[in-house]
């Protein structure tokens, strides 16, 4: 049974003429023991979606279920959930122990011995057992975050809700805490809904990720499915850093070539068949990831001429920001190569690694051929 279910959930904020649909007919499941990451740009409805499950916002339409029970009208304290906020929300006058036990004493009738046992076990798990008598002003940011997590864990809920819990930490600590959160969730094996705008967190932490835009679910799948097989232009452009490159072209059905300013690209027969059936008009948006672009020695139907505008050396790789016709693209090449700005390069877009989208609808017509990337069985890692 899924840990939590959203079924055709809509949330409308009424404000006279300024009525806003924050969540629009949203349906998905969070499986028991699954770490599901809800990701999208600011204002897309991520936090509202989480707050609907927590009971902090009322549902305009649809149903939310936890462990099979409809909880639309239940108070937050009766939903068997635990939430970790973006701010640590610790009581400054209370010790770590008192912060962790406060919710249990207020909402349960557990005996003192059980409360003490839960706190000590959780504190040891999080590595804060030596901090139980300190107050928050004597803790570092990472320690405060562990206390906030501990306060949620001791409740032993059916569902964990986490609203950008790492956003207040520095970059190095965020990386460390990402790993710790993954290990912790594996140990607890509890359904978890994690909200973030950081796609790195989404890609590295989630069993599955759900991509939202303007209150609507764009795609839900494993991180690699969303990265390599985006369902539309929004997902393709949002997932990945640097993001996917796009070229707006016109498709010639006679010869299977797409053309634009300074660009002419030939598709293979299988791709042509997909384009013939998938395009609503003649507009096709060609997409390719920066790391899939190759520097070519000679011209062919898959190469373009590019003017290098900016070079960003990153150490193991260089990001080349180039102009191709009237488009601006980013290519990633090995950091061993020295590339001067203001020079012209010939770049290849391998046919097995390009994506195509219907320019009118934004829907994917085909994605890259992942079968071409598979290692032979003897070399599988």
What proportion of the residues form beta strands (DSSP E)? 25-35%
Q: What is the C-level CATH assignment of the largest domain?
A: Alpha Beta
Average pLDDT rating: 91
Q: What order do the strands of the largest sheet run in, or round the barrel if closed?
A: 6-7-8-3-9-10
Count of DSSP E strands? 21
CATH level-two architecture of the largest domain: 3-Layer(aba) Sandwich
Please give the count of helices. 9
Helix content: 25-40%
Q: Output the structural class.
A: alpha+beta
Distance between the termini: 33 Å
The H/E string reads EEEHEEEHHHEHEHEEHHEEEHEEEEEEEE
What is the name of the CATH topology of the largest domain?
Rossmann fold
Please tell me about this protein's structure.
- Helix content is 25%, strand content 33%.
- The chain is built from nine helices and 21 strands.
- The protein is elongated and about 75 Å long.
- The two termini are 33 Å apart.
- It is of the alpha+beta class and 381 residues long.
- A hairpin with a 2-residue loop joins strand 17 and strand 18.
- It has two domains: 225 residues, P-loop containing nucleotide triphosphate hydrolases (Rossmann fold, 3-Layer(aba) Sandwich); 124 residues, OB fold (Dihydrolipoamide Acetyltransferase, E2P).
- The chain has a six-stranded mixed β-sheet, with helices on both faces. The chain has a six-stranded antiparallel β-sheet with strand order 13-12-11-14-20-21. Strands 15-19-16-17-18 form a five-stranded antiparallel β-sheet, with no helix packed on it.
For the structure shown, list the relevant keywords.
21 strands; six-stranded mixed sheet; 2 domains; elongated; six-stranded antiparallel sheet; 25% helix; OB fold (Dihydrolipoamide Acetyltransferase, E2P); 9 helices; 381 residues; Rossmann fold; alpha+beta; single chain
